[in-house]
TrEMBL record:
The keyword Transferase applies. GO terms for biological process: methylation. GO terms for molecular function: methyltransferase activity. It comes from the Bacteria. This is Class I SAM-dependent methyltransferase. Gene3D superfamilies: Vaccinia Virus protein VP39. Residues 51-137 form the Methyltransferase domain. Transmembrane segments: none annotated. Keywords: Methyltransferase, Transferase. InterPro entries: Methyltransf_25, SAM-dependent_MTases_sf.
């Protein structure tokens, strides 16, 4: 998650405020714990160099490192980078749309914990992610439950400036993938969380 989520990274509550005044509670506690069974669905598919985009406090980046999988977490939050390093992961303060080390050579990219919402446009984000992946590279994405469709909003956290965000329902993934010239190669669900793996189409 981005720097707007620093209070959650430090153990506080985290709510997204939407323009209509409604609020969405985010699972900050899960970000701080060790990976659970649902996370293992993602981790088990990462066997080559992996870029964890919006790594937050680094539970996935550090877990991969412990398994001997080369991994790099990137996050625009300095707090996230520090926490990831404290857990034993390698992390840099970096925006996915800026220069990223290893561009064009990563085997896997993770967009967990709602990070498909970064930038407010999943198609644009996925196109960027596949610029960072090497030939045959795969993106592993966490999705909202079916029925959520594609939703774009301006949101903020605890009075922070407004920023664009998006949600992508599992049943809307195929259309978004096609628009980004991608194909869905795997899907899974566990404990109310939904995941998919994407590859280049063709």
């Amino acid at each position: 998650m981005s720097g707007h989520f620093d209070s959650a990274l430090l153990g506080g509550h985290c709510r997204l405020e939407l323009a209509d005044g409604s609020r969405i509670e985010l699972p900050a506690g899960r970000w701080l714990r060790d990976p659970g069974a649902a996370d293992e669905l993602l981790l088990g598919r990462c066997w080559g160099p992996t870029l964890d985009i919006g790594c937050g406090p680094g539970r996935l980046t550090a877990a991969l490192a412990r398994r001997g999988v080369p991994s790099l977490g990137i996050d625009v939050s300095g707090t996230a980078v520090r926490l990831t390093r404290r857990r034993g992961g390698v992390a840099l303060r970096r925006d996915v749309f800026d220069r990223v080390p290893g561009a064009g050579r990563w085997r896997h990219a993770l967009l967990a914990d709602g990070n498909i919402g970064i930038g407010g446009d999943p198609v644009v984000l996925l196109r960027r992610v596949f610029e960072l992946l090497g030939p045959g590279g795969r993106a592993l994405v966490e999705l909202d439950p079916p029925g959520a469709a594609v939703r774009r909003e301006r949101v903020r956290v605890d009075g922070s400036p407004w920023f664009p965000w998006a949600w992508l329902g599992a049943d809307a993934l195929a259309g978004v993938a096609a628009a980004a010239a991608l194909a869905v190669s795997w899907t899974a669900a566990h404990g109310g969380r939904h995941f998919a793996e994407l590859r280049r189409a063709g």
